[in-house]
Amino acid sequence: MRVAIFSDVHGNLPALELMVKNAGLVDQYICLGDVVNYGPWSNECVQYLNSLEKCIKIKGNHEEYFLSGCYNGKNELVKKFFDFCITDFTEQEFVKEYLSSYVLDHYYLCHTFNNRYVFQDSKISLNRNYITGHTHRQFKLESNGFILFNTGSVGQNREFLNRINYIIYNSLENSFDLRSLVYNVDTLINEMKIRRYPEICIDYYMSRINRG
To answer: Considering the domain boundaries, does residue 212 fall inside one?
Structure first.
């Protein structure tokens, strides 16, 4: 079985569509959460995932924010994005159905490991194999004879915004293809400007573009 595993789309529909096109023919899609917020197409991304056959969807922290109607964190930038994006979100009923986790072969799939931000150099103790998202970085980490894969982010790479990360898992070979695509983010930025995002939000996105 060939499975496309991805996370952190964050309202970036063009990036999501390109990822699906790049993945090609797969037997299943698994989204590890944070489909919504930040980018201008939260509704459309939820709808697009609903249109995919055999797509399992896991709830991330931003789905939780959108369902509760509030962001209770202290990050002012995130609050600006949330306050702007929640106003026209209409797909709560679909998001309610997202799972909390999913088991695929020998791997436990969830949005984040123990509600932590885990990076490649993080010191953690694993007791099973994981595939997660949340930190917007793609990597493989080993501990206690177990493995944690982070898919990276489809829609909001925290290093370079114009990079898409996801994983193709081949269950027959137990192999992982960690993929990285470069794409043109001008459509995303222009749409944010058209919708009159707060300047601080647009500036944040502009600062994450690698034009090299």
So the answer is: no
Domain of 57, in residue numbers:
2-206
Q: How many domains are there within the chain?
A: 1
Amino acid at site 178:
L
Q: Two tokens at 5?
A: 């595993």
Model confidence at 212, in pLDDT bands (50, 70, 90)? Answer: low
pLDDT in tens, 39-84: 999 999 999 999 999 999 999 999 999 999 999 899 999 999 999 9
Give a yes or no: residue 196 inside a domain: yes
CA distance 53 to 79: 33
With beta carbons less than 8 A apart as the criterion, state whether 12 and 37 touch.
Answer: no
At 68, which amino acid appears?
Answer: S
Query: Which of 49-86 are b and which e, b meaning 16 or more Cβ less than 10 Å from the residue's Cβ?
Result: beebeebbbbbbbbbbbbbeeebeeeeeebebbbebbb
52: in domain: yes
103-146 tens-digit pLDDT: 999 999 999 999 899 999 999 999 999 999 999 999 999 999 99
